[in-house]
Amino acid sequence: MRIPCPLCGTRDRREFTYYGSEDYANRPAADAPAQAWDDHLHNRDNPCGPTRDLWYHDPCGAWVRVHRDTATHAVHGSDLVAERGQA
Amino acid sequence: MAELIAKSPGAGLHLPVTRGGATLAEWLPGAITSVAPFAGAGDKVDAALTPLGMGFPAPNGMAQGKTARIVWTGRGQAFLIGAPAPEGLGAVAALTDQSDGWAGLRLAGPAAADVLARLVPLDLDSFAPGTAARSLLGHMALILMRPDPEVWDILVFRSMARTAIHELDTAMVQLAARAAG
Q1: pLDDT tens for residues B5-51?
Q2: pLDDT at residue B119 is higher than 90
Q3: Where exactly are the structural domains of chain A?
Q4: What angle (nearest 5°) sits at the alpha carbon of residue B60, between those of residues B56 and B64?
Q5: Which of A13, A69, B17, B107 reaches 20 to 30 Å from B152, CA-CA?
Q6: Which residues of B are less than 8 Å from A12 in CB distance?
Q7: Contact, B135 vs B121, CB < 8 A?
């Protein structure tokens, strides 16, 4: 399995550490209701198909959001968590 | 104050060693300074590095000046190797002295890439001379540079020096044995 790092290029999976769903990067506001925090911390989908999750590229220290497909095992691309929402 | 005796990371570890077409030697890079530009200060960092004949490198990049080298080591970070930080750089980037934190090794020769291929999960055929990469040497964090086609400069954490030399030497022994058979 190879994963694209937006900085370093496509690299072997050994260079990456899995974190979890991209939900972990979407933190609720501090005053959000308890249900939102419960969802953020504990409730995950188990999708069959397109998935976005967070990986850490150990050598270069970048948090990467990987777009992949759990049904076909295709990896479609990635972007930097630090640059989400920017052009 | 006591006069302490400085030892290099590879002291007593039986280098250099040549096996087949590859030679592993200790590489003493001199001063290593981590350069992390402040937000929006990229142009000023490039200007401060101009006297050394280099700018801030792109990912997987390195630049070789007359006396120093700069290599990309992570998002918003590069290592300036071989020269002290030039004047004015500290005002536009966070600098930390890393000189004693890393062990330098130089693997050279026509078989050097084949040795590395046993330990590094990179496509070394497409690793152009004059470029660099952060990757793994076995399970160790690695900064790999290829200043010349048959020269590979390796930086690992200093505490890993003995392990790195052992792993590289083992790969060299096995590769040489296969070539001899």
Answers
A1: 889 999 999 999 999 999 999 999 999 999 999 999 999 999 999 99
A2: yes
A3: 1-26+49-87
A4: 55
A5: A13
A6: 121-122
A7: yes
Report ipTM for this prediction.
0.86
Residue B157 CA to its chain's centroid (Å): 10
- Cα separation, A44 vs A56, whole angstroms: 20
> In CATH terms, is domain A1-26+49-87 a member of 3.30.2270.10?
yes
Residues A64, A18 contacting (CB under 8 angstroms):
no
Give the chain A residue nearest B121 (alpha carbons).
A12
Min Cα separation A7/chain B (Å): 6
Indicate the DSSP class of residue B18. Answer: E
Q: What is the C-alpha to C-alpha distance for residues B75 and B64, in angstroms, rounded to an integer?
A: 20
pTM score, two decimals? 0.91
CA atoms within 13 A on the CB side of A76: 12
Tokens of A65: 């959001």
Burial of A80 per CB tally in 10 Å (0-12, 13-18, 19+): middle
Mean pLDDT score, B38-65: 93
The per-residue pLDDT for B181 is: 73
Is B17-29+100-180 a domain of CATH 3.30.1360.120?
yes
pLDDT in tens, B127-169: 999 999 999 999 999 999 999 999 999 999 999 999 999 999 9
